[in-house]
UniProtKB/TrEMBL annotation:
Residues 33-178 form the N-acetyltransferase domain. This is RimJ/RimL family protein N-acetyltransferase. The lineage of its organism: Bacteria, Pseudomonadati, Pseudomonadota, Alphaproteobacteria, Hyphomicrobiales. It holds the Pfam family Acetyltransf_3. InterPro entries: Acyl_CoA_acyltransferase (IPR016181), GNAT_dom (IPR000182), N-acetyltransferase (IPR051531). It comes from Kaistia geumhonensis.
Amino acid sequence: MLEADETSEDERPVHVTGRLALRLPRQRDAAALAIAVGNPRVAMSLFDVPYPYAHADAEGWIERARVPSRSPGTTLVAFRHCDAALVGAGFHRPSDAWPDGFELSFWVAEPFWGRGFGTEIAHAVIDDAFERGGAERLWCAIRVTSGPARRVAEKCGFQFRDTGLVRSLATRGTVPVERFVLERRVWTSLKAWGREASRLGRGPESAGVEGQTSDAA
């Protein structure tokens, strides 16, 4: 395990939002991750995790996320400021399926559904991909049955591109998905729009994607 090699640098959040601190995962997070992702309603919405999802699966996921790589990409876990509860996670990485693009994935633990945390996590991971990861476009595949995730993607500026099938470890088969894309130029415009709205004293509802949350995820 990597616990002995984890340094105080891991304690520092990579991103801080209104309610969350997002940082690199640590082995001590494995128990909370196993509970959250072990929920079938979470596992079945993801494509690259098995079900049942055990403590050892969480440990392996953390170890892979922490291995230094020549390729850009980041995995972040999100904890609530008020009580350090694990709320969810997200990652971005170069895509093997879509040319010249990165793929984005995020999830929220079921106790926190319907409170806007999905949008908060997605915003932070998207910003990381464009600001630090050097992405020019982000792709996101969402199961057709996941209306909340679709609404989060749309609130973050993603645009529908097409439909398809994706292999799912949890279901041991393929599942139908909708594919969405977010270009850097769109992200840049939305960020600028949000900053201008904030400067003028307008509320988040007038700030485009920037600052919005959703009751959907």
